[in-house]
Specification:
single chain, elongated, two-stranded antiparallel sheet, mainly alpha, 129 residues
């Protein structure tokens, strides 16, 4: 059996795979980021509130973290639902699309999912701002 191929807008041939698989990998990534974001709540756990001068700022930041986590979780659920609704015969060049992702480990996980690409430590590629 030959591997399905498609021609990208730039003329390159790319391997295709079921859209369902790509969507499920994306949903898993969004879910993982939501869980990682939820861990940010530890930053405000154990804060000695009597020593905090700008309590409203800290509370606002904690609420923003919560909103981000809920949004990521909701997006993960939405993408997983799209995967469940996708026709099983639809194909897409997920590996080609993953090349637009700047984080190498994330791009690798999105490309084929054969290796989760995670390191033993939380540090990795990212941009300081």
């Amino acid at each position: 059996m030959t591997e399905p191929k498609t021609t990208s807008p730039r003329g390159a041939t790319a391997r295709t795979e079921p859209l369902v698989e790509v969507l499920l990998r994306l949903a898993a990534e969004l879910g993982n980021v939501a869980k990682d974001t939820d861990r940010l709540h530890r930053l405000v756990d154990g804060v000695e509130w009597s020593n905090v001068k700008e309590k409203h700022e800290l509370i606002h930041s904690a609420q923003a973290i919560d909103a981000i986590e809920q949004t990521l979780s909701g997006l993960s659920d939405f993408v997983a639902a799209l995967a469940a609704l996708s026709p099983p015969d639809w194909e897409i060049a997920g590996e080609t699309a993953s090349r637009s992702v700047k984080l190498a480990e994330l791009a690798a996980r999105l490309a084929d999912g054969s290796n989760d690409g995670r390191t033993d430590h939380p540090a990795g590629e990212f941009e300081f701002f």
